[in-house]
Amino acid sequence: MIIVTFNIRGLGGGTKTRYLRHIIANEGADFVCLQETKVKTLSDAKCYSLWGVNKVGWIHYEGENGSGGMLSMWHQEAFIYETHLMGKGYIAVYDNYVKDNLRCVVVNIYVACNLRDKKTLWMELSNIKSSSQEAYWCLCGDFIAIRSRAERKGSTNRVDYISEIRGSIDDNLLLDIPIVGKKYTWFNSNGLEKSRIDRVLVTEEWMEKWPMSKQYVQRREVFHHCAIVVKSMEKDWGPKPFRTIDAWLLEKGFGEMVKTKWNSYSSRGSGFMKIKEKLKCLKRDLKLWNRDVFRNINTSKKRILQDIEDIDCQDCNENIMEDARLKRCELLSRLKEIDKKLDSFTC
């Protein structure tokens, strides 16, 4: 799957159209996300002109007062449109990727500059994602935020919203896929300031399906932003082996859970085919179980450490009750179990 995202800063002018059409044709794009369209209405003819062919589906969000407009387009031979959700700062298109017969969600993002609107947008996206059954999510666009100081060079007068975007990415279990090419995606016209505010985020399932996915930053012409092409340079290494994680074996009830799941699967065919299908089902269920059980393990450790610290401080200043001592022993035992699990992840 190949996706192009670009803050075009206005659809007018032949230079931008030629630039975009060249990238689409050269890369063989399947889906295109544009930000800052700066137009109220669009037509089929305009979208066909931008793509260079007429087999194009599209959704346009005009924005507010000429700002925040977005356009999502897809090649109708690559995607079968199902439905979409749209709001201030996003267009989420639900479609079926024909090649792999997968239901995907591609979200076009243009995040507002102020913190309140940023939080509102991420809250809406979190609610949409949590209520959806689709695992293959891709969010791309202009986030107007950086993840670290290393993603900006130049003026320090800007608000970077580092903690907000980090928290939003972590809370929604999103991955910032590797970037290839230039380190920055936005350049001020005076050349003194540059940053990486355009990016692509995907779910873990997306990376498992397309493990070689990367963001390729394109050349820049007279624009402030560089277009980004998302694609996976895949190689067929054969079937993926079935693996387990040592930490799973330390979790109480794991063995019984696996036994129950295994016995619940029904399959047909030869003995080999039955085992193959059951392993496939078990892999899927273990992935969900691992996410539910181990997703918050670091958060749990921080909470336990703080509880132990509170009891230790109280013990230093006054005599504590027996129930507090017993609670500390229990917390230390739980902390030891968590450290064993963490060690098994890093070994």
Mean pLDDT: 84
Question: How many DSSP E strands?
Answer: 16
CATH topology term of the largest domain? Deoxyribonuclease I, Chain A
**Uncertain regions spanning at least 5 consecutive residues:** none
Principal-axes geometry comes out as: globular
Order of helices and strands: EHEHEEEEEHEEHEEEEEHEEHHHHH
Q: What structural category characterises the helix and strand content?
A: alpha+beta
Radius of gyration: 24 Å
Q: How would you characterize the largest beta sheet?
A: 7 strands, mixed
Number of contiguous helices: 10
The CATH architecture assignment of the largest domain turns out to be: 4-Layer Sandwich
Fraction in helix: 40-55%
How are the strands ordered across the major sheet? 3-4-2-1-16-15-11
Just give the CATH class of the largest domain: Alpha Beta
Q: How would you sum up this structure, described in words?
A:
It is a single chain. The protein has 347 residues and is of the alpha+beta class. It has three domains: 230 residues, Endonuclease/exonuclease/phosphatase (Deoxyribonuclease I, Chain A), CATH 3.60.10; 49 residues, no CATH class; 50 residues. Helix content is 40%, strand content 24%. The chain has ten helices and 16 strands. It has a seven-stranded mixed sheet, covered by helices on one side. Strands 5-6-7-8-14-10 form a six-stranded mixed sheet. Strand 6 and strand 7 form a beta hairpin. Helix 9 packs antiparallel against helix 10. The two termini are 34 Å apart.
